[in-house]
Protein: Phosphohistidine phosphatase, SixA
Organism: Gloeothece verrucosa
Amino acid sequence: MTQLYLIRHGIAAEAADYSDDQKRPLTEKGRQKTEQVAQKLLQKGIQFDLILTSPLVRAVSTAVILMDVGLSKKVQEFAPLAPEGNLETWVNWWNQSGYNNKDSSLALVGHQPDLGNWSEVLVWGKTQEKLIVKKAGVIGLNILDKTAPIGNCELFLLTSPKWLL
Amino acid sequence: MTQLYLIRHGIAAEAADYSDDQKRPLTEKGRQKTEQVAQKLLQKGIQFDLILTSPLVRAVSTAVILMDVGLSKKVQEFAPLAPEGNLETWVNWWNQSGYNNKDSSLALVGHQPDLGNWSEVLVWGKTQEKLIVKKAGVIGLNILDKTAPIGNCELFLLTSPKWLL
């Protein structure tokens, strides 16, 4: 089974306090909650072959927390995961990644509403913006057709930290 | 906010051991896991104004466990929640239920693939059978338009017991 986990960054500092949105860090509470979510995923036996993350600070910090608890040995910044990034770019990457021809488990760390939209497109072929994804929330998809993931995934998990902790 | 929780019955005795599928009881493990899920929902502050359940034994037992842990004071059998039941019948009930004109929280206890299909229709207007709903798994929807729920719900939770426990 090939699985894709889409994970939203944790609670970050207020936008009003940072002139550059890209540099907003996680708050202390955001770090703690993200680490608790990560520990829960680890407890359940989850391992990621790779974590791709939006290059924004709040996403990179989230990805590093996931790696630090032991969920993966590899984190890589991936520009299309920044806000308003393009799913097609990810699909092109996927098709050449080497993860597309074996059982694998990847995590994508990014932002809303993109992660919800990407998930809907991967599962249903288009988005209606109907998924609620809270900060440090997790979406889990099975990729049924590894050669053509769009419209060919199943949804097995959608949760906010509330239900995991 | 008006919320709808769709909950699949717990692990039941093998079909081969019961000539009447409607009478298959929960196994001991099924009862335990269902009770753990129910306790977790209670811990998170969930209360149901009403639990509607499929009349099949494994569903009724699941609903009674939810009530017994304190999630609701009311359980009612509802024939359209039996396998291959009709969502329109539920919508007709809803429209006359009195729950449709206030904030409320209802649980529907039933079977797969119906619960997944109903959820997809409530959220996206049609089903592609893309939701994985395990035994004692939980789906959580916000009903955005109480006068016309079909296609007007958001998905905020989809989980198997694995992630809750």
Observations:
- The radius of gyration of chain B is 15 Å.
- The interface with chain A takes residues 40, 44, 123-124, 128, 130-132, 142, 153-160, 162-164 of chain B (CB under 8 Å).
